[in-house]
Amino acid sequence: MPAETSLDDAPAGAAVPAEAVAPLMRGITVLNRLTEAGGTLSPSGLERATGLARATVDRITATLARMGYVRLDGRDVVLAPRLMELGNAYLAALRLPDLLAARADALADELDESVSLAVGDRDGIRFIHQATRRRAMSLSFRIGDLLPAERTAPGPLFASEWTEEDWRGWRARRAADPEDRGFPAVPPRERGGTDGEFEARAAQARSDGWALDDELIEAGLVAVSVPVRDPATGRIACVASVVSHTSRHTAADLRDTLLPRLRSAVADMERALRDAPAARPAPGPQPSGLAAWTGASKQELGREFVESLARGLTVLTAFGEGRAALTLTEVARATGLARATARRALITYEHLGLVVSGPRPAAEPRPAGIPHRVFVLTPRVLSLGFPLLSRTSLPRIAGPHLADLAARVHESASLAVLTGDEIQYTARAAADRVMSVDITVGTRLPAAATSLGRVLLADPETTARGYALLDEEWEEGLRSIAVPVHDRTGRVVAAANVALHAARRTAEECVRDILPELRATAGRIEGEMAVAGRFVRVALH
Ligand code: PHB
Known about the structure:
Helices cover about 45% and strands about 20% of the residues. With about 550 residues, the chain is α+β, with helices and mostly antiparallel strands.
């Protein structure tokens, strides 16, 4: 089908390599169109947005759903939190958020202004960390958002390292997209600065070692930026910015009052990079587990499972902390894929601008006799739904899982957090029964009188058993069973329960029939929260 073969989300017009994996390209296109649509599309909407045939859309979404990257919500296809593992692979491999985020957060607290870290991404800048103040008058960007370099403070600093080719690419983009429509995170450009202005700002930034954004993105938004240099190469690793609003600081004011403090924080960041211990290679995907998973998926979904798409996507998760630059052999070993399969996936990603290859960096050991060409993820990996999904919360993550649970056990399911000596319901799925327990999100109850509260109060008996079962608590004839929900560090941050009228099941039946389902649900919520919370603070309510 011609519409399908011409599908190409490559950044700049290069011809599709003959070895590119077409289903992998289609899968990435589906993720891109879903991202552009705000995270949700109907299958027919996806058909229109991608130009793919309906049967193809269905097979791709079934495969992505199997991977946990999308969810099928009634008729709609919805991006799901587990997709963030792709952006996580990039951020973990980069290491800068792990090494610098705490310092950026401390600076934001000290100045009571937002602080961000950004990397260069072709002719744009992309955020890798945000320490955001919540204020009425502030537009805040998310991790993974891409901004046009010329409308930011970090942009001229990155541009001071651009090659002639980079500048040509930038001029071509400006000519082709004068209103910045290709940058959905920023409002359209109204008054266009000239190309010469940005060139002058880049030259100035090179000699000053800092740069300003004086309301370039929108009225009121000002920022001052300083580059954080890689101690090994002297090149810019990322740029740290303090962002404010003209109601608090003018741009000149930022430079005069906050730049000195930003510079000393950056010096401290550079020391942290110099003194960083060697990256500990995090465990990658388990090749044998992947093979078993692929086999089971084929069994279960049959033709609906697009194996080359699933295999190709696991290639991105081969990267991570201590696995930033991988040879083809290393990628094949980490994923359990045949070299030829891994190679074709890498060629596809290189074409799409998600991976670049080059000689192994001098700073890394070069074992004799091993080819030195390595593959590295690019910041563009963050464009795969990451900014959108990073604005999630525990109740939003839990919602679909509670709904599944309620549908399976035909009883209502809830999530709650502890506030003082009360619990507060934060998510809820009603049972498909006429007579169901009637509580709404936001309801507060005394913690000690509920199964949710018993779990959250870490009542020793309850903690030992791993669940709380309560009869006739706040309402006569009500029985409920609750389990803890942990964050990625193992801390109990919420509790999930199933509540029912006591006449429907005995206490023993609750433990036998409902507890395993409830625990599986809590495990799924915890799994998604661990992925979402790796680099982003997930709100608990
Ligand atoms: C931000 O972190 O939100 C930010 C940084 C630099 C800018 C604009 C915004 O120039």
